[in-house]
């Protein structure tokens, strides 16, 4: 099994508490309001804490249409979330799983920085193509900006 690591860092004028609430706790309800087509269906099994499973179906025609995500750990006080993509076509046939570690920290100016570390666990000696990592960064940044705009407006 191979391992690749990638870090995405995004800064916001929104406080760490509000950004964590929007990105982690309220994300699916926010997206249902501001981007109703972002997800075709989300089935949640669990209470949102560690062990919760989400089966997510994305719109037809998207490069990735299914994913199963497991919450591994969540700490609201420390504003951290660990979750893993463990199933669906997001694994592209050459990944065993994708671990994600999210931390939202306050900045001196009252804003925040969100850092997401993705650890790709590949099958054999497979390598995640750079264009796949760039696509994931673009999608995650877009999701972040949508949630950030909602939090600022509300």
UniProtKB/TrEMBL annotation:
CDD domains: Bet_v1-like. InterPro entries: Bet_v_I/MLP (IPR000916), Bet_v_I_allergen (IPR024949), Plant_def-hormone_signal (IPR050279), START-like_dom_sf (IPR023393). SUPFAM superfamilies: Bet v1-like. GO terms for cellular component: cytoplasm; nucleus. The lineage of its organism: Eukaryota, Viridiplantae, Streptophyta, Embryophyta, Tracheophyta. Belongs to the BetVI family. This is Bet v I/Major latex protein domain-containing protein. One of its GO terms (molecular function) is abscisic acid binding. One of its GO terms (biological process) is abscisic acid-activated signaling pathway. Residues 1-153 form the Bet v I/Major latex protein domain.
């Amino acid at each position: 099994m191979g391992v690749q690591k990638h870090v995405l860092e995004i800064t916001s004028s929104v406080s760490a508490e509000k950004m964590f609430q929007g990105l982690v706790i309220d994300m699916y309800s926010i997206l249902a309001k501001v981007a109703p087509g972002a997800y075709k269906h989300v089935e949640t099994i669990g209470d949102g804490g560690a062990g919760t499973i989400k089966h997510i179906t994305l719109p037809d025609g998207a490069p990735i249409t299914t994913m199963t995500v497991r919450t591994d750990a969540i700490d609201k006080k420390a504003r951290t979330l660990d979750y893993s993509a463990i199933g669906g076509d997001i694994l592209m046939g050459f990944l065993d799983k994708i671990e994600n570690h999210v931390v939202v920290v306050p900045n001196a100016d009252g804003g925040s920085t969100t850092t997401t570390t993705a650890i790709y666990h590949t099958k054999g000696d497979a390598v995640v193509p750079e264009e796949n990592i760039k696509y994931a960064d673009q999608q995650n940044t877009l999701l972040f900006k949508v949630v950030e705009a909602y939090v600022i407006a509300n």
